[in-house]
Write a structure and sequence with these properties.
- The termini are far apart.
- The protein has a 6-stranded mixed sheet with strand order 3-5-19-18-13-16, with no helix packed on it. Strands 4-6-17-14-15 form a 5-stranded antiparallel sheet, with no helix packed on it. It has a 4-stranded mixed sheet with strand order 9-8-7-10, with helices on both faces.
- About 20% of the residues lie in helices and about 25% in strands.
- The protein is α+β, with helices and mostly antiparallel strands.
- A hairpin with a 6-residue loop joins strand 18 and strand 19.
- The protein is flat and about 140 Å long.
- Its main location: membrane.
- Keywords: Calcium, Cell adhesion, Cell junction, Cell membrane, Cell projection, Disulfide bond, EGF-like domain, Glycoprotein, Integrin, Magnesium, Membrane, Metal-binding, Myogenesis, Phosphoprotein, Receptor, Repeat, Signal, Transmembrane, Transmembrane helix.
- Belongs to the integrin beta chain family.
Length: about 700
């Protein structure tokens, strides 16, 4: 961004270099720039043919170059450093798009069992492709092996028939283009059915040699600039790089076509894609590109996945957002071209990049302008670009005319030793101040002695956030003062709730109250921890004036002269808080435990006190309910105790009875020991009996 004006000295301050004219828009406007030139990048679509929409119904026959699958086809971008330019690419798989398919068959001896299936496969492929597109061509080729030892036998008999004597095989070969691409399906079927097996010695085959020739021999194969398909049919592996050394082949494949009479002469020295991947050519230095894909079913991807969409069928349409950014100006005055194309397709998008390296005002510069010291420079964008050998802000000095010592003397303040106060460089006897890393900070002055960032701070803000730093001194905004602009002149923060400045007990300094009465404190000198409250202070006077009672009832007339209470009947009749600005509601208790209510307010230097004339006294106790409740309580307690005693006795009796029953069951009588027991049997001994 550059300031455009012919008044060179009107914008730059003393000490500022010409580069200070290039800055952010807000910074230029804050410094009084009258006109800002701010070139922006843009996108121009040069070629924008819509993607082709047609059906495979034979109603229209289009040539390949008449079918469009990607849109737009060419764009021109103007890139400014750091500014991103975005555009969208639309891709659609065209229906009935021309297709060239080449069928590459392995004819080594190991394919003998599968030869008939492979032949049929080629025919089936041709019929299937003809149902997909009406513009279809098919070709056919075959391969065996490298034609040197030890891959094949080089004896004369084996070269004629590499198979056993009872097998009739064709001579070995590396690759043969049997049929170039053609629309004649019958000829394809005939040639495929006539193929014969050949033979080789090792298991890997020369398939990669054949694939290379099919890819690079476009003229012999007959490839068109349409979708190209290669169907590769084999049952064996392939040779790796370096395998050819066994046969004395030391040169790598050169990637060129070597077909003579449709035969590969240098062997001795799919399904339709369902994924769309965008690729781009090499980017110029400092240019980056990114992709965002918008695929089927609302799926979007970024990063590496932003380049591709999967599961794309014929007729499907997808969208890619492309963003290109330049970090600098890699090619001043030159254009760069990059190409974006879907991988595997021949269509591409050409993107021409033009870089904005200068403002437009440079083109209208005035050579040898009289504003540049009698024509010693070109006036461009309000600044002088000096001719060779001239220096200075307006090219006023010659490098050869003035010695460096003389120039430096003009850059020392007060004959000091520091050149440009060590904050700049002496150019042509004039100080050009250094730039700071922070674009908001700058050195100024004839000797770069001033700056806008070394002023006093408050609350970690330069000039308290209420002023500007000019030559290391704060210039305060309105209503602020002090060295750091931290002293507000507004006294509103000092106003107390009674409308007085600092409650009449202090002074307002820099928006803060300085309390002169030591009993008071707080931001507005309204807090007094040792002072009684308004309600407690005026309780006794309200009590004696309104109710003729209280501690001051005998001296009420002489003590309470400051106000006269206004009686109201109910509490609801008292003034409400929003009716007066400074109002206090009070609730106090007298000696009889009765409550009385009043309000205290100051208005126009007078005191207003409203008092509710009825006291709220606690009601006396109702004796009958108390006595009845007491008697009922005693009776209930007696009944409860009686029931508890009865329950305990029942439990005790049941336990004793159970104990008796248990002892009764355990009792046993021993009849042999019963003292009152007498047997019914009497025994008499014969005295004459001698036991004989």
């Amino acid at each position: 961004v550059k300031e455009k004006t012919i008044l060179i000295s009107a914008f730059l301050k003393q000490g500022e270099s010409k580069s200070a004219r290039c800055d952010e828009i807000k910074a230029l406007e804050s410094k009084g720039c009258s006109k800002v030139e701010n070139p922006r990048g843009n996108i121009t679509i040069d070629e924008n043919k819509p993607v082709t929409n047609r059906k495979k119904d034979g109603s229209e026959k289009l040539k390949p170059d008449q079918i469009t699958q990607i849109q737009p086809q060419k764009l021109t971008l103007k890139l400014r450093a750091g500014e991103q330019q975005k555009f969208s690419l639309r891709f659609k798989r065209a229906e009935d798009y021309p297709i060239d398919m080449y069928y590459l068959m392995d004819l080594s001896y190991s394919m003998k069992d599968d030869l008939e299936n492979v032949k049929n496969l080629g025919t089936d492929l041709m019929h299937e492709m003809q149902t997909i597109t009406s513009d279809f061509r098919i070709g056919f080729g075959s391969f065996v092996e490298k034609t040197v030892m030890p891959y094949i036998s080089t004896t004369p008999a084996k070269l004629l028939n590499p198979c056993t004597s009872d097998q009739n095989c064709t001579s070995p070969f590396s690759y043969k283009n049997v049929l170039s691409l053609t629309e004649d399906g019958k000829r394809f079927n005939t040639l495929v059915s006539q193929q014969q097996i050949s033979g080789n010695l090792d298991s890997p085959e020369g398939g990669f040699d054949a694939i290379m020739q099919v890819a690079v021999c476009g003229e012999q194969i007959g490839w068109r600039n349409v979708t190209r398909l290669l169907v590769f049919s084999t049952d064996a592996g392939f040779h790796f790089a370096g395998d050819g050394k066994l046969g004395g082949i030391v040169l790598p494949n050169d990637g060129k076509c070597h077909l003579t009479n449709n035969m590969y002469t240098m062997s001795h020295y799919y399904s339709l894609s369902s994924e769309v991947i965008l690729e781009n050519s090499k980017l110029p230095e400092g240019v980056s590109i990114s992709y965002v894909s918008h695929c089927k079913n609302g799926v979007s991807e970024t990063g590496d996945n932003g380049r591709k969409c999967s599961n794309i069928s014929i007729g499907d349409e997808v969208l890619f957002d492309v963003a290109i950014t330049a970090k600098g100006c890699p090619s001043p005055g030159k254009s760069e071209t990059i190409k974006i194309k879907p991988l595997g397709f021949n269509e591409e998008v050409v993107v021409v990049l033009n870089f904005i390296c200068e403002c437009e005002c440079h083109k209208s510069g005035i050579p040898n302008s009289p504003d540049c010291h009698f024509g010693n420079g070109t006036l461009e964008c309000g600044a002088c670009r000096c001719n060779e050998g001239r220096i200075g802000r307006v090219c006023e000095c010659s490098k050869d005319d003035v010695r460096t010592e003389d120039l430096d003397a003009n850059c020392r303040m007060d004959n000091g030793t520091d050149i440009c106060s060590n904050n700049g460089d002496c150019v042509c006897g004039t100080c050009e101040c250094k730039k700071r890393d922070n674009p908001e900070e700058r050195y100024e002055g004839k000797y770069c002695e001033c700056d806008n960032f070394n002023c006093d701070r408050s609350n970690n803000k330069l000039c308290g956030g209420h002023g500007r730093c000019v030559c290391r001194k704060c210039v305060c905004d309105a209503n602020y003062t002090g060295s750091a602009c931290d002293c507000p002149l507004d006294k509103q923060p000092c106003m107390a709730s009674n409308g007085q400045e600092c409650n009449g007990r202090g002074q307002c300094e820099c928006g803060v109250c300085k309390c002169t009465d030591t009993k008071f404190q707080g931001p507005t000198c309204e807090i007094c921890p040792t002072c009684p409250g308004v309600c407690a202070e005026h309780k006794n006077c309200v009590q004696c004036l309104a109710f003729k009672s209280g501690e001051l009832k005998d001296v009420c007339e002489s003590t309470c002269k400051n106000f006269k209470p206004i009686l109201v009947k109910k509490k609801e009749d008292l003034p409400q808080p929003n009716s007066q600005p400074f109002l206090t509601h009070c609730k106090e208790r007298d000696a009889n435990d009765c409550w009385f209510f009043f309000t205290y307010a100051t208005k126009n230097n007078t005191t207003e006190v409203y008092v509710v004339e009825e006291l709220e006294c606690p009601a006396g106790p109702d004796i009958i309910p108390i006595v009845a409740g007491l008697v009922a309580g005693i009776v209930l307690i007696g009944l409860a105790l009686l029931l508890i005693w009865k329950l305990l006795m029942i439990i005790h009796d049941r336990r004793e009875f159970a104990k008796f029953e248990k002892e009764k069951m355990n009792a046993k009588w021993d009849t042999g020991e019963n003292p009152i027991y007498k047997s019914a049997v009497t025994t008499v001994v014969n005295p004459k009996y001698e036991g004989k």
